[in-house]
């Protein structure tokens, strides 16, 4: 489907100097990765992700949580970036300052070619020790699930942020610093329900940034937006980039 953009939006994009993009699960939906809040299918249909992605769930049933993440890790490893991810790589090439912040743990921005990504919620490909909170990149082969930390014998867990946990400070500080100096802020494919990520566009707004949301649905953030572009990111983003910077020749 072909989208028509307001001329004011295209002009804003062309003249922007400090652009910040916050992405959520929606940008990877077209890569075949189910978003967090949609019903799961198959083997895991009876589980609510909200009840698996917590330290309490892991303490109670570490094997179940590890296996759920192993399933998601497999889905992620088979997924490819979609035109939305690639359009953000292209957008960055046209702008003096560009910061990409993601809540996704799937690595698809990096695979698409985005060179610097602030990962607020970790990365599913990595594991860490539940006891010591340090990343562990290899451990002896074992049938035991979850495997154990080769240093302390504690259980290994995915290096993702669970509900109730704090976010890694380095990307979080970078995200707040970028939002507080943004002149244009995109919120793409996120339900805007999870803090502190959801407060980033509001911070940008306070410093005078123009806010744009790309999402087929409205969200609790929509009312704050200057522009809401309704539709899939994989369709809208490439068209928006082509409208702002038409391909030569
Ligand atoms: N293009 C753009 N947006 C889309 C698309 C698409 N093709 N498909 C779905 N969406 C939108 C949905 O309308 C919804 O608003 O993406 C959003 C996905 O919302 P969530 O599943 O809640 O994902 P997200 O906002 O990233 O969740 C935040 O919460 O579950 C935790 O830690 C997890 O990082 C996650 C965080």
From the alpha carbons, calculate the radius of gyration and give it in angstroms.
19 Å
DSSP strand tally: 9
Biggest sheet, spatial arrangement of strands = 3-2-1-7-8-9
Our measurement of the CA-to-CA distance between the termini, rounded to an integer number of angstroms, reads 24 Å
Count, helices: 10
Strand composition percent = 15-25%
CATH fold description of the largest domain: Rossmann fold
How many separate domains? 2
Describe it for me?
The protein is of the alpha/beta class and 249 residues long. The chain folds into two domains: 7-32 and 81-121 and 166-244, TPP-binding domain (Rossmann fold), CATH 3.40.50; 34-78 and 125-160, SIR2/SIRT2 'Small Domain'. The protein has helices spanning 7-15, 26-29, 49-52, 55-60, 62-78, 83-93, 108-112, 169-179, 200-206, 233-244; strands spanning 18-23, 97-102, 117-119, 122-129, 135-136, 156-160, 184-188, 210-214, 227-229. It has a six-stranded parallel sheet, with helices on both faces. The protein has a three-stranded antiparallel sheet with strand order 5-4-6. Strand 7 (184-188), helix 9 and strand 8 form a beta-alpha-beta unit. The chain is elongated and about 60 Å long. The model has no long low-confidence stretch (mean pLDDT 95). Residues 24-27, 29-30, 35-37, 103, 121, 189-191, 193-194, 214-217, 219, 232-234 line the site of adenosine-5-diphosphoribose (APR).
């Amino acid at each position: 489907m072909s989208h028509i953009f307001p001329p004011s939006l295209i002009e804003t994009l062309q003249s922007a100097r400090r652009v910040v993009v916050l992405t959520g699960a929606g940008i990877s939906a077209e890569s075949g990765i189910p978003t967090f809040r949609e019903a799961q299918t198959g083997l895991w249909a009876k589980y609510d992700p909200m009840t698996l992605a917590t330290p309490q769930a892991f303490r109670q049933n570490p094997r179940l949580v590890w296996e759920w993440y192993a399933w998601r890790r497999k889905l992620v490893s088979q997924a490819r970036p979609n035109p939305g991810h690639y359009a953000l790589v292209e957008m960055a090439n046209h702008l003096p300052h560009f910061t990409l912040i993601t809540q996704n743990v799937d690595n698809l921005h990096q695979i698409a070619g985005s060179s610097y990504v602030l990962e607020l919620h970790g990365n599913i490909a990595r594991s860490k020790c539940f006891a010591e909170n340090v990343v562990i990149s290899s451990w002896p082969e074992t049938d035991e699930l979850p495997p154990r930390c080769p240093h302390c014998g504690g259980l290994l867990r995915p290096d993702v942020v669970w509900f109730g946990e704090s976010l890694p400070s380095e990307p979080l500080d970078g995200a707040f610093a970028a939002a507080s100096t943004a002149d244009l802020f995109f919120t793409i494919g996120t339900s805007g329900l999870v803090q502190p990520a959801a407060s980033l566009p509001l911070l940008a707004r306070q410093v005078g940034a123009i806010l744009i949301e790309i999402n087929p649905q409205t969200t609790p953030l929509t009312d704050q937006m200057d522009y809401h572009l309704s539709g899939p990111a994989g369709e809208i983003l490439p068209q928006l980039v082509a409208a702002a910077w038409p391909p030569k020749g």
